Amino acid sequence: MKTFLTCFLFIFSFLFFETAILTNIVVFPIIPDLILLFTVYVAIHRGSLVGETNGFFSGLFLDVLSASPLGLNAFLRTIIGFIAGLFFLTLNTNGFIVPVFLGVSATLLKALLQQLVSFFFPNIVYTYDFLNINIWLECLVNGLLAPVLFFVFSKFRSLSEDPTEAINQSSRKM
Questions:
Q1: Which end of the chain offers a freer environment for a tag, N or C, measured as fewer CB atoms within 10 Å?
Q2: 28 near 134, Cβ under 8 Å?
Q3: Which residues of 114-145 are buried (b: 16+ CB within 10 A; e: fewer)?
């Protein structure tokens, strides 16, 4: 239950921050995808099911608040949450290199999946142009923000504790 409430709090704070504040700052032509980084972190530390659920609901809330087709972000982030959850408890997200790699690869995966979806809905879905600098700037910003955000997320015990350890501790109490 604590994990659900913590995820809910992070999703809505990042959603508010991205849609209300970052969209009005015109210094950069891109907006860092904080919700995507959160989905990747949660999926790696809590598994595919939590990552998929987090990705679906955060994407659905983002779809409601943005001009994208309803369900597009939910679909993309569910797939990303599942794929990141395949690395459940195998990656060490402490440090700098792994979070940067995860931030860049999640952004590129989002862009590739969006390109694939646009193949089926060409007039509806906005796609990234891989020859344009915007996708690479977004990769850079997400990659540089990932270590900072992963460090902050690691301070929340309900997001980063090992679920098998929690099960073992609860079975010892009985």
A1: C
A2: no
A3: beebbeeeeeebeebeeeeeebbebbbbbbeb
Tens-digit pLDDT profile for residues 16-43: 888 888 877 777 788 899 999 999 999 9
Distance CA 158, CA 6 (A): 7
Q: Is 33 exposed, middle or buried (0-12, 13-18, 19+ CB in 10 A)?
A: buried
Question: Cα–Cα distance between 41 and 59 in angstroms, integer?
Answer: 15
Interatomic CA distance for residues 91 and 67, integer angstroms: 35
For residue 27, which amino acid is it? Answer: V
Q: Of 46, 78, 40, which Cα lies nearest the Cα of 59?
A: 78
Per residue in 72-107, pLDDT tens?
999 999 999 999 999 998 888 888 999 999 999 999
CB atoms within 10 A of CB 78: 22
Greater model confidence, 127 or 48: 48
Q: How far apart are CA 150 and CA 61, in angstroms?
A: 22
- Report d(CA 137, CA 103) in Å as an integer: 12
Question: pLDDT band at residue 172, thresholds of 50, 70 and 90?
Answer: low
| Residue 22 and residue 13 in contact, taking contact as beta carbons nearer than 8 Å | no
